[in-house]
Design a protein that fits this description.
The structure is a single chain. The protein has 457 residues and is of the alpha/beta class. The protein has 4 domains: 106 residues, DnaA, N-terminal domain (GMP Synthetase, Chain A, domain 3); 155 residues, 3-Layer(aba) Sandwich (Rossmann fold), CATH 3.40.50; 64 residues, Helicase, Ruva Protein, domain 3, CATH 1.10.8.60; 90 residues, Chromosomal Replication Initiator Protein Dnaa, Chain: A. 54% of the residues lie in helices and 9% in strands. The protein has a 5-stranded parallel beta sheet, sandwiched between helices. Strand 2, helix 3 and strand 3 form a beta-alpha-beta unit. The longest helix has 23 residues.
Length: 457
Amino acid sequence: MEAPASALVETPLDDLWSRIDGFLRARCREDLYERWFEPLRPVSLGEGRLQIGAPDKFHRDFVEDNYRGWFEEFIPELTGERLRIAFAVDDAPRPIGAPASPPPAAVAARAAEPHLEPRDSRPNPRYAFDTFVVGASNHFAFAAAQAVAANPGRTWNPLFLHGDSGLGKTHLLHAVAHAILEKSGGRVAIVSSERYTNDFVAALSRGTMDEFRRKYRECSALLVDDVQFLAGKDKTAEEFFHTFNELHDHHVQIVLSSDRSPKELKGLDERLCSRFEWGMRVQIEVPEFETRAAILQKKADVEKIDLPDDVTQLLAQHIRSNVRELEGALMRLAAFASLKSEPITVPLARDVLSDVIPPPGYRPPIEKIQEAVAGHYGLTVAKLTSASREQKIAFPRQVAMYLCRELAKEKFQSIAEKFNKKDHTTVIAAVDRVKGLLESDDAVRTAVAQLSAKLAP
């Protein structure tokens, strides 16, 4: 029986995606296309906005962080109009060997298909212990993760990993899940707190709480990413509290990650936060230069990118905040090199990554120093530059003035004007005081070193 003619009409979304896919295939290296772009698929088009689906949160975050700007640059060349690009998680199963864009008949039929539950979360195959780069900033967390994976539920339970975003917490969670799966052959439940919350809300609305509890309580291990987002969700947190107790009582391994320590989690029941401290709590720090360079080389090897040593050093020197940004910069650089059919060089890196790599001879402007110091001490710039003589404001102001002199090499009078001071002698006194404290006060030395590193080019 022939399909209705209407089902065979290609929609504007299909037509646009066909052109986008053709552009990506033609411009990108095959391995780059297959890794990041082939799994994408169109979701919706309307009101000047194109929504694109990625298979999981990691994939969505990666293309959002590194390729959204590029999509918004080249798509107008294909359409003749600017479109806002949004990436979303579309985790319905993707058939092996399926075309990047489904045929029109499949698109027309999709609306008639019954809703299917997303597949159970599985460990990301890219995140294993042997792909994790170990350095001084993370070796305690790595050792703890390996220990609980080798003896789940018996060594440290729970294992609580915390640190800023993009430092490798998610990688270690998935590595533990892989190792436990290989060891026990059972089922692990590894989810983000957002997914756990959504599953809980769905179970409440459908009356399937028994099924929900089986999913999260009858497992070999429970691993939850970003537990700080349970704050303020009282019913979800209460259910998680009981799930935690059930698993802990039966020696089932629990691994949690957060962007802050349990004591700093606001909006969560104290009973739950105290349980997070029962096992081992480990902080992951920002990676030092050597670890950043090793991460880049590892990523380049995995992605088959020819990365010269001088470019590795350039990226490792300037991109300090987190691993995700570091790897994202490398992939963005590799993509542009592929598009231009050029080798990766220092000039190309400086050109492509000019938003994160300042030019040679860079000095931070006074405004940036003020923002950094204010943020470090929990102040606003307005407070920092006010006339207040309170010690909690006056001392950070003196540190800021010192850094303006040392890092920005500004004249005393210029600094005074930026801090609303008429007399430059105030700045001279501030600089002299901080210099004296640097010789005698460890806390001041640490603060100035941290701020200097943050503001360095």
